[in-house]
Protein: HAT Half-A-TPR repeat containing protein
Amino acid sequence: MSRNSGLVKNRAPAPIQISAEQILREAADRQESIKVDPVIQIHDAEEYQSYLRDRRKHFEDNIRYRREHIGNWVKYAKLEEEHKEFERARSIFERALEVEPRSGELWLRYAEFEMRNEFINHARNVLDRAVQLLPRVDFLWYKYVYMEELVRDIPKCRAVFERWMKWMPDDNAWLAYARFETRVGAGAPLDRAEAVMRRYVNVYPSAKAFLKFSKWAEFEAKNIDLARTILEACLSELEPEESRQARVFQRFASFEERQGEYERARVIYKHAIKLLRLADIQVDPKKVEKEEDITEWEIERRKELYKAYLSFEKKHGDRKGIEQVLLIKQRREYNDRVENDPHDYDAWFEFAKLEEDNSASLDNHDPAAVREVYERAVAQVPPTTNNKDHWKRYIYLWIYYATYEELTNGDMERAAEIYQTCLNIIPHKHFSFSKIWINAAKVYVRMKNLPLARKILGRAIGLCGKEKIFKEYIALELSLGEIDRCRSLYNNYLKAMPENCAAWTKYAELEKSLGETDRCRAILELAVSQPSLDMPEVLWKTYIDFEIDEGEGDHARRLYERLLERTNHVKVWISYAQFEGSEIGMGMPKAREVMEKAYDMLKDEGLKDERVLLLDAWRVLEQQNGDSEHVGKVEAKLPRRIKRKRMRKDEDGNDLGWEEYFDYQFPDDDDQGASNLKILEMAAKWKRQRQDGSDDGSDDDSDMED
Structure:
């Protein structure tokens, strides 16, 4: 839409009006004058002869000046013909032929002159001389056979055609001969015409000749069986460079479709798709063109054949055919996507999944198309080695490729080669991927090649050294019962990552499962002595649980004491008290002592939430292992939860408004806190009395004063 489309046009009449009459007059005035030759009026024979002498003299002069100009001769002969001077006209043509005897146009004008004036024998003589002198000029032969057929001299016309065919003319000449025999043999068997076409395909054994023969048989001879036989012979008898042309299959399939033989047409299309690699042309036409050494024109014809197949399936296909058409369309779309952006790995994933699903749905599983997509995908290596994120999606292409070969095709050797190739591509100096190492090793394990699997994992530890690789290697050796190898791997694991509490724990659990108590205790002792640990609470818990399971209460108690020297976390105190209250501990007095000590410490530090958590655990412990007296003492220590307000501030210290929060008021806090708690209790009591409708306010006042 133009910019001025929204403007209102000015529909007012023009200031100067022009009528239709003015336009016509102006057009007539501007026309150029036409020069008309003067009209010559002849009154008698003498004037007529004088006029002819002048015209002849004019043409003779022109011929004298330009003898090689054929137009002058033809016009001169035309003059004599118009005045019924046929002998003179014939003489002029003969004189012209002496000048230009190899001018096919001149021979044609000469023959047409004789035919116009119904000198058939003269015309036959002229054309016979012409085709003898110029046998390769086809339009002379066409004129010759046309004249003989026009005068209904069929034997002579056939004889002319036979003379012509001896010179091996082009395809149209043979078709003209066959059509002539078809016309003269109308209503009778077309044996002569068929014989002509058979001679034609024998002289020119090409796809073009066979296709013309089949077209003649279908549309002119109306012989469907003959047309089908010819097309079948074209595919079977011709050389591959002739028969393997897209137009042959397209004509054959279109013929069967016109006859309603849809299954035959579908078979032809599918044979063409497989033989001519139509699907590959949709993917990479330049590759097919280079491999088969075919022209761009043939590539375009094959693409047209593919479109014809799609159109056929849309019109006559069943569900399977329609799905195949959709598959072709999706292939084209994915090819466009990966051509526009070769590093669009999501597109490669979807493309490969499409080919896998299609290959799985086929009766004869053929992994060639899937492998080709994967090979094209993994060839698109990320352009940089500085960013690991670019490689993450790319690495999964290799994993999916190897998984497909192993699970779908059952080719573990190929899967192992894929992993090895991927490991050679990854820039391990910058980064690596533990998943690739582990998957490669597992493939060799499934192949029962343990030395190669160990070699892969050992190389991975040297180049990558990630925690996951250690775990998988240890799990492999543990499943094989190689305990010494596991210990060696754990030692290397902990040398590389001494702060990893999970590694220390697993190592200790391994020794514990083997009954090596001293080894387990030594490992845990070494672990807790490390200066830096990522999850020390897990490690200490494992160590303490180990001593408890072994029945070493004194060791566990010493561990608790050591742990409390490092941290005063409330959960540690609770666990310590629960340990003392258990069967292996020293009993509830010791547990109460631990709780009292923890409570005092938390009180001194002002940690109210932790005190509440400790009192809840203490009450549960007393309920389970103590008596009601001590339960009451613990409950007397429980705080009251009260709602308070405080000013909320932003990062810069500006006031944002008041907010409510919950606080705890402990009974054993300072006197001010107890006084405040007493006042709050009295206020709550007074409020309840007001709600009950009490009129006596002196009691409330006295309570407030107390």
User: Anything to note?
Assistant: Residues 319-340 form the longest helix (22 residues). The CA atoms of residues 280 and 288 lie 7 Å apart.
